[in-house]
């Protein structure tokens, strides 16, 4: 079944207007049907064999005017409905934006939209692409929760308006077992409560689950609670870049960016219990340095939802003193920023922004 879904997606990709497709060509052509690496046994690549990529040079953030907790789709949102202090949220959001600017990154601020309270987490609706020949573009996602699905067309429009080629290979309004009836009941958390086993659905929550290895053409992806395995197969086929998949196994760490944060080519921070043995093996294989993060700082303060920018600089959520000292001891400059209002919704710095490439970003 999985094979037939990937085949359908591939057909859709092939039928798309050619000018819409990034042709990476080259040695990954043969990976079209097997681009997802799920264990070290099937891993035939090394980091240094992967082409170099530049650091992203642009940041997008969505203003928190309409941010709130209005439904429950992760454990952090339980009992938080209506509890967001809007004024505080603006202050915290502005602090994150100011830090990016202080470190020389241009921030594109976008308006939010009434009725889309999670839109502020603008890492989730798309995945930025960069290619030496084709330049920068975006691949649109498909949200698992029906409550968040309208965010994708909104972002699609914004990105296209900015002049970026935008690729859509996932059906935006797909139905899953959740009916409209459930949507109106405010709580759709059951969608995510168990680890996905054999789902055929194409769910893809952008950079929440899928991330570029710093400075290398290699993709890391989490799956199980939000993004689905068939979507990762389609991603690998579309980009022709190897995708290393990590199965997530703790419902509190439902996106890859809650438990895995790459700091540079050689270094990653992880919360090890979020992964199975096979995943940990893959992580240790590719990174010289794997920094294990404290349980409380991971679960309560979202230490792994930090964001690294070039020059060994890290934006870290507040209240992670052990992580901050560890990073400083490794030579990183750390900016600690409060995001308490956003934690009520299960997000922090990493998901409050999209890092992407300008058309003239270069190596
Ligand atoms: N309330 C949002 C959700 O559950 C929070 C998303 C946070 N994003 C992230 N990448 N962790 O979808």
Describe the protein.
This protein is α/β, with parallel strands linked by helices. 25% of the residues lie in helices and 19% in strands. It contains 10 helices and 16 strands. It has helices at residues 2-15, 86-102, 151-161, 180-183, 206-209, 229-239, 277-286, 295-299, 321-329, 340-343; strands at residues 36-37, 58-62, 106-110, 126-131, 135-140, 166-167, 210-212, 219-223, 243-247, 260-264, 267-270, 289-292, 307-309, 313-317, 333-337, 354-356. A 4-stranded mixed β-sheet has the order 1-9-8-7. A 3-stranded mixed β-sheet has the order 3-2-16, with helices on one face. The longest helix has 17 residues, at 86-102. 46% of the residues are buried. Bound molecules: arginine.
Question: How would the blueprint of this fold be written?
Answer:
Elements: H1 2-15, E1 36-37, E2 58-62, H2 86-102, E3 106-110, E4 126-131, E5 135-140, H3 151-161, E6 166-167, H4 180-183, H5 206-209, E7 210-212, E8 219-223, H6 229-239, E9 243-247, E10 260-264, E11 267-270, H7 277-286, E12 289-292, H8 295-299, E13 307-309, E14 313-317, H9 321-329, E15 333-337, H10 340-343, E16 354-356
Parallel strand pairs: 1-9, 2-3, 5-6, 8-9, 11-12, 14-15
Antiparallel strand pairs: 2-16, 4-5, 7-8, 10-11, 13-14
The structure holds arginine.
Quick structural gist:
By secondary structure, the protein is of the alpha/beta class.
Figure out the total of helices: 10
The name of the CATH architecture is 5-stranded Propeller
Percentage of residues in DSSP E strands: 15-25%
CATH class, named Alpha Beta
Q: What characterizes the major β-sheet?
A: 4 strands, mixed
Runs in which pLDDT lies below 50 for 5 or more consecutive residues are: 13-33, 175-194
What is the count of distinct domains? Answer: 1
Distance between the termini: 40 Å
How big is the Rg?
A: 19 Å
Helix content range of the residues, please?
10-25%
Order of helices and strands: HEEHEEEHEHHEEHEEEHEHEEHEHE
Average pLDDT across residues? 88
With strands numbered from the N-terminus, the spatial order across the biggest sheet is 1-9-8-7
């Amino acid at each position: 079944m999985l094979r037939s879904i990937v085949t359908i997606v591939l057909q859709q990709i092939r039928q798309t207007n050619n000018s819409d497709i990034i042709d990476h060509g080259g040695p990954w052509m043969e990976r079209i049907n097997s681009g997802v690496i799920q264990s070290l046994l099937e891993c035939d690549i090394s980091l240094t064999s992967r082409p170099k990529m530049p650091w992203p040079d642009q940041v997008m953030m969505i203003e928190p005017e309409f941010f709130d907790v209005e439904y429950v789709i992760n454990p952090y949102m339980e009992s938080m409905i209506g509890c967001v202090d809007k004024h505080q949220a603006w202050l915290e959001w502005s602090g994150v934006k100011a830090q990016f600017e202080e470190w020389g990154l241009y921030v594109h601020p976008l308006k939010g939209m009434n009725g889309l309270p999670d839109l502020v987490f603008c890492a989730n609706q798309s995945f930025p692409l960069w290619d030496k020949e084709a330049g920068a573009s975006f691949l649109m996602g498909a949200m698992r929760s029906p409550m968040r699905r309208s965010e994708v067309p909104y972002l699609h429009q914004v990105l296209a308006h900015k002049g970026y080629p935008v690729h859509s290979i996932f059906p935006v309004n797909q139905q899953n077992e959740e009916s409209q009836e459930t949507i109106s009941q405010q709580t759709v958390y059951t969608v995510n409560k168990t680890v996905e086993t054999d789902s055929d659905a194409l769910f893809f929550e952008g950079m929440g689950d899928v991330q570029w290895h710093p400075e290398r053409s290699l993709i890391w992806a989490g799956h199980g609670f939000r993004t689905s395995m068939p979507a990762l197969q389609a991603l690998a086929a579309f980009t022709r870049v190897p995708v290393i998949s990590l199965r997530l196994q703790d419902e509190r760490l439902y996106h890859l960016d809650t438990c895995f944060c790459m700091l540079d080519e050689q270094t990653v921070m992880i919360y090890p219990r979020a992964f199975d043995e096979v995943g940990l093996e893959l992580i240790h294989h590719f990174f010289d340095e794997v920094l294990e993060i404290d349980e409380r700082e991971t679960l309560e303060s979202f230490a792994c939802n930090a964001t690294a920018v070039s020059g060994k600089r890290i934006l870290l959520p507040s209240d992670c003193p052990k992580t901050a000292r560890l990073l400083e001891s490794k030579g990183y400059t750390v900016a600690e920023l409060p995001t308490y209002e956003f934690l009520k919704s299960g997000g922090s710095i990493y998901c409050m922004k999209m890092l992407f490439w300008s058309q003239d970003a270069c190596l």
